[in-house]
Structures are given as structure tokens and as C-alpha cells.
Write a structure and sequence with these properties.
Strand content: under 5%
Number of strands: 0
Largest sheet: none
Helix content: over 70%
Shape: elongated
Structural class: mainly alpha
Number of helices: 2
Distance between the termini: 12 Å
Length: about 80
């Protein structure tokens, strides 16, 4: 690993974002969130299911940002 502090920090953010994404995915799976119903009506989520969906979506956004930041820092060198 490079001694570049920017790259080290980007790597740290990437690893944390990946860990957060894994936890959010497990929460989403555990919440058993329905995505489509047979009657084509929007699913009715409990507050816990809604929180699991938004947490998962936000974790994806943070992961994508951390991933882009890591590759940007890596390619600078």
C-alpha cells in the first residue's frame, strides 16, 4: 500500500462504505421487504421495512462515492 495519505484515507472510506453496505443489505434481507404484489398495487411497508430500504439505498450511494474516490486517488499517483 502506498504511503500517500490521500490514498490511505480513500481506502479507509471504501472499506467502511463496503462494510456499511453489507450490514444494510442484511438488514434489508432480514426485513423481508416486499417489492411487488400480485395485484400490481404498490407494496405497503412497515416502518422497519421502509427504514431498511432507505438505509440500503443510502449505503449504495456512499459506497459508489467511496469507490470513485478511491480510484481517483489511486490513479493520481
Amino acid at each position: 500500500m502506498s504511503a500517500d495519505p490521500g490514498l490511505r484515507e480513500a481506502r479507509r472510506r471504501y472499506v467502511k462504505a463496503l462494510d456499511d453496505l453489507r450490514r444494510a443489505r442484511q438488514r434489508f434481507v432480514d426485513a423481508r421487504v416486499p417489492m411487488d404484489l400480485a395485484d400490481r398495487e404498490p407494496p405497503r411497508w412497515t416502518p422497519e421495512q421502509h427504514a431498511a430500504v432507505t438505509t440500503y439505498a443510502n449505503a449504495w450511494a456512499w459506497f459508489v462515492g467511496a469507490n470513485e474516490s478511491y480510484w481517483h486517488e489511486r490513479d493520481k499517483g
